[in-house]
Amino acid sequence: MFLFWRTVIIALVFASTVSTTHGTTYYLSPSGSDTNQGTSTTTAWKTTSAASRTAFRAGDQLLFEGGHTYRGRLELGGDDAGLPDAPIVVGSYGKGRATIDGGDGSGLIVDGSSWITVRDLNVVGSGRKTGNDQGIGIHLAKGRHLRVDQAETQGFQKAGILIDGCSDVRITRAYAHDNGFAGICADGGRSEDIYVGRCRAINNPGDPTNLKNHSGNGIVLFNVSRATIEYCEAAENGWDMPRTGNGPVGIWCASNADRVLIQFCISHHNKSPGLDGGGFDFDGGVTNSIMQYNYSHHNKSWGYLLYDYGSMWPFRNNTIRYCISEDDGDAGIGVGVNETAPNTFSDCEIYGNTIRSTAETPCVSLFQGNPKDFHFRNNLFLSETGPQVRGASHALFEGNCYWGKGGEFKVDDYSSLNAWSAATGQETIDGKIVGVHLDPRFGFEGSGGKRLTDPEQLHSLTDYRLRPDSPLIDKGVDLSTRLSGVPATRDFFGRRVPLGAGYDIGVSESP
């Protein structure tokens, strides 16, 4: 008898679960009424208040009639829970996207919910300087299994999209612009398993009320574990930060960030009235993280920065590989550690990159502090008037190419690779010089280069490939024996590494 009733109970539970996955579709329309049931286009609700009062179940949909604006905040809470195969969906129906207008506050808050999908919506605020007060476009807080796809957020003083203490979050094809602190941000409680893909963070100028810290970031993740940012563009951010201290960056992570991967992204023309305004950054308490296959160009400061501002967390075991920097302001790659940093700033591998500077700034600048075990290998440093490297004594250099516009070698006070190697031991392995001072002969010369903004087109940067007659082919050091970790298996263009008899120098690998 016991087995019979257990079987009946299991069957009833299963049937109940299956029945809820069909869900109910609720509608909002300017022609609706909050006294309606909301379950059809002819009985639609009118305002977000009616939707916020409703507890949604697995498989439910909340759809706004497209082409219209709905004023007021939409809130989903802990009593709104979907299932893996039946999430709760918030989106648009009819022609075009609907717009939620958060006015002077936030637009859409998902707090403590699970299995929620937000898609095909615009969320607007009254403007970072014209009424919005610390508002957030889409605020994901203390939730699990959350998705945002094809959303546009603008006009919020804090962030277009904020992730706070969540797990398993995917932000895809979002366009966050004209916000204050950041376009897309993770901050607050620790978040895990975060994915930001094919998003654009454009013209997020700064938070006019934030006078003590940076603002105007593109995409920034704080206090995260296991996060990926890929195929994203960040541009024209940070130009109106209301202070002159430490500043914003296009795409970066910081403050107890672990296992972050930033790849196939473009960050360009980011600015700052004060410091920073760079392309990419690992900053203060970042561990076990990688930047690879990215393109940084025409940013106010660093193309790629490795820095510790004095955080309470260690900074170690990070990598920059097969990335391009073109005409970034302070340097293509910057390295520094504040003397107040209480923890380790160590063990970073920088290899296979191509850095081009047409200004008086260096390709690489180790500008502050004493990093430990920072290694530069198989990089191509191409400058016009400035030095290839400044502060070289603070890192190890092996197998790199150094070349000035007129063929000059400039590393600190040295104008000769042989003299520098003899005096410092740099660029030598077992007594043999492994660095090169040679014309790289790659396609960029005379072409002016391409100023890409679309990450899907990174493969078209063929000017950065070595020509067949380049002396850098097979001239790099053997990364399989020199690195502390496992080397990358593909170059910037997707070709196998190594492809020929040895490793090439720079971002491209040739047979």
UniProtKB/TrEMBL annotation:
<dbReference type="InterPro" id="IPR006626">
    <property type="entry name" value="PbH1"/>
</dbReference>
<keyword id="KW-0732">Signal</keyword>
<dbReference type="InterPro" id="IPR011050">
    <property type="entry name" value="Pectin_lyase_fold/virulence"/>
</dbReference>
<feature type="domain" description="Right handed beta helix">
    <location>
        <begin position="211"/>
        <end position="380"/>
    </location>
</feature>
<dbReference type="Pfam" id="PF13229">
    <property type="entry name" value="Beta_helix"/>
</dbReference>
<dbReference type="InterPro" id="IPR012334">
    <property type="entry name" value="Pectin_lyas_fold"/>
</dbReference>
<protein>
    <recommendedName>
        <fullName>Right handed beta helix domain-containing protein</fullName>
    </recommendedName>
</protein>
<dbReference type="InterPro" id="IPR039448">
    <property type="entry name" value="Beta_helix"/>
</dbReference>
<feature type="signal peptide">
    <location>
        <begin position="1"/>
        <end position="23"/>
    </location>
</feature>
